[in-house]
Amino acid sequence: MQAQELFPQVQKLPLSEQMALLSYLVQLIQREVDNTDPPQTVLERMGGMPQHLLSEGGLSDRDTRRQIIGKRIHARHQSES
User: Fold this and answer.
1) Over the Cα atoms of the chain, what is R_g?
2) What is the number of domains present in the chain?
3) Contact 21, 10 (CB under 8 A)
4) Are 48 and 40 in contact (CB under 8 A)?
5) 11: left (phi over 0), alpha (psi -120 to 50) or beta
């Protein structure tokens, strides 16, 4: 049965039954939404956190990140010279 065939039959139902049917449809849609996996972050799509960053702590602190990045740049510059 197609949706356009079902709609006139639903319109013939009492309002309380129409509302119950709509509530049921909302529950089905919500259940479908809840069962889907959340979208991956960019980091997850790229394979996760780079291993060299996992060894460092406190990366959520801006000053700590700057200090770690500065050390890495300095070490890389020293090895290239």
Assistant:
1) 28
2) 1
3) yes
4) no
5) alpha
Q: Is the predicted pLDDT of residue 40 greater than 80, yes or no?
A: no
Residue 63 lies in a domain: no
Is residue 11 assigned to a domain? yes
Q: Which pLDDT value is given to residue 19?
A: 93
Nearest to 63 by CA among 71, 54, 75: 71
> Which residue from 34, 31, 51, 32 is spatially nearest to 43, judged by alpha carbons?
51
Give the separation between CA 66 and CA 76, rounded to whole angstroms: 15
pLDDT at position 55 is: 65
Flag whether the pTM goes above 0.70: no
**What is the overall mean pLDDT for the chain?**
80
Domain with 10, as residue range(s), is 3-34
